[in-house]
Amino acid sequence: KATVSVLNCRCTCATPRQPLMGAGEPPQGVTATAWLCLFGLVVQNTSVVLATRYATAVRGDGTPFAPSALVVITEFGKMLVSLFIVHRTEPGGVMKVVREVQEHPRCCMKCCVPAGLYTLSSIGVYYAVGNLEPTLFQICNQGKMPTLALFSMMWLGRTFSRRKWISLFVLSFGILLCSGVSGTNKSSRPQSFALGIGAVATVVASSSFAGVYFEGLLKTDKRAKETSLWMRNVFLSIFSMLFGMPMFLSAEWGDITQRGGTLQAALDVFTKGVDHWAWIIIALQIAGGLLVALSIKHADSVMKSCATAVAIVACGVISHLFFAFVPGPLFFPGATLVIGATITYSQPDPPGLPHSPEPKDKADVELSPSSVERRHTSSA
Fold it and tell me: What is the DSSP letter of 54?
């Protein structure tokens, strides 16, 4: 999603984290698969933000697409991928999804809350990237870390080491430095810095609360923990589409009525602007979820945080070369603080302290195993 983190929109475990490679330490003898996955994640994180920025703000030709329509199409694609994997890996194939709905409808319905929040977050990403320089968006998007920590402390009773609190404070201060001076950038369409910051705040708050809610669900609902990752992805995508369609109608109703208010008019508005750039963004969003799943299986949180830092730097360099981005005087100090705090926060706590949660986007919940599932999937 254009989570992009954007667009890059990733759930924490219901039990103390048990990373595949050890307690947060760099994996011993990192495999070629791990490096390949992390390289792909860096490329995806960078390209999806830049492609979204180009499609929504930079290019002068083409009709703007409806963000909510693109989110619905993306969720449909994720649902197809999840159904295919369920068919290949689950006994009974796709029919097991039908039986799960028939036998445990309440458990399935519980996915509607995080799905709705993630849908709101995914739509917000398009408005954020369309009004903010890509590097600034990626840095502000790291605000998920302190927000998730706050929600986890309030609703899950989590505690944090002093080093993690310092890291969160430094990260927040770095974000303030970066957002206080936005610099200049290339754009062919009207932009609103206030709208962009407001959209980022919506993305951060909704996705963080959804991650905490999902963790609480896994912690209290035994059936939710037993449901396979890919089957849960199917339910999340279905509910996301159900939430996305009313959001689309609400946002685009004026355009639909101007075209006659018919079903054909709604279809025309839905597909408006869905050109090759839109399909590139959709493909990158779906591929990003798969890469997140592979990176968590084959690499640890420290390496993943380093990949995020590299993506921020790469995005800044490319934005400067191709989008005429000129950062303000406080941007580089702020970006350095954000990158350093992100890596420091991911370091393991000393033995005896409770593990802190990592920020999660929808892709992490959908297409990556939680710690509970890692014990079942690591040998796959």
Answer: I
